[in-house]
């Protein structure tokens, strides 16, 4: 099973600041549409599943890897990054996973 999601990748983003609208770069999240290897539900402190976000292991193309600003431990492999995906932006793609009630899907094993 292949799953492509829109995810939020920690990166450096350009913003305009000041009176003269000078361009500067600050840490932020960039959207990336890419293949996902694993999807996990996030658990709240009270033990319930978070309804708005899921954790994913997403493939980051080689030309985009240099722009990723995250701790080295978030890289699962040199190609896959652990990050978050909003359910609202991936409602159709994540519908089966969210309805299943499962905590995790490993999509690499299911061919």
Describe this structure in words.
- This protein is mainly β.
- It has one domain.
- Helix content is 9%, strand content 51%.
- The chain contains one helix and five strands.
- Strands 1, 2, 3, 4 and 5 form a five-stranded antiparallel beta sheet that branches.
- A hairpin with a 4-residue loop joins strand 1 (4-17) and strand 2 (22-43).
- The model has no long low-confidence stretch (mean pLDDT 91).
Give the SSE map.
Layout: E1 4-17, E2 22-43, E3 49-59, E4 80-86, H1 91-100, E5 104-106
Q: Which structural traits does this protein have?
A:
5 strands, five-stranded antiparallel beta sheet, single chain, 1 helix, mainly beta, 111 residues
Number of helices: 1
Biggest sheet layout: 5 strands, antiparallel
Instruction: State the shape.
Output: globular
What is the helix/strand order?
A: EEEEHE
What's the mean pLDDT score? 91
- Cα-to-Cα separation, first versus last residue: 5 Å
Helical coverage, percent range? under 10%
Number of strands: 5
Structural class: mainly beta
CA gyration radius, whole angstroms: 16 Å
Hey, roughly how much beta strand do the residues contain? over 45%
Give the low-confidence spans.
none
Number of domains: 1
Summarize the structure.
It is built from one helix and five strands, in the order ββββαβ.
């Amino acid at each position: 099973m292949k799953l492509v999601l829109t995810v939020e990748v920690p990166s450096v983003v350009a913003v305009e600041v000041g009176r003269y609208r000078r361009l500067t770069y600050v840490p932020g999240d960039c959207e990336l549409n890419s293949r996902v290897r694993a999807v996990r539900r996030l658990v709240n402190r009270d033990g319930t599943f978070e309804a708005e976000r899921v954790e994913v292991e997403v493939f980051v193309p080689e030309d985009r890897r240099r722009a990723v600003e995250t701790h080295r431990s978030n890289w699962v492999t040199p190609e896959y990054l652990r990050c978050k995906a909003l359910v609202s932006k991936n409602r159709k793609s994540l519908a089966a996973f969210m309805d299943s009630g499962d905590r995790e899907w490993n999509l690499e094993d299911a061919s």
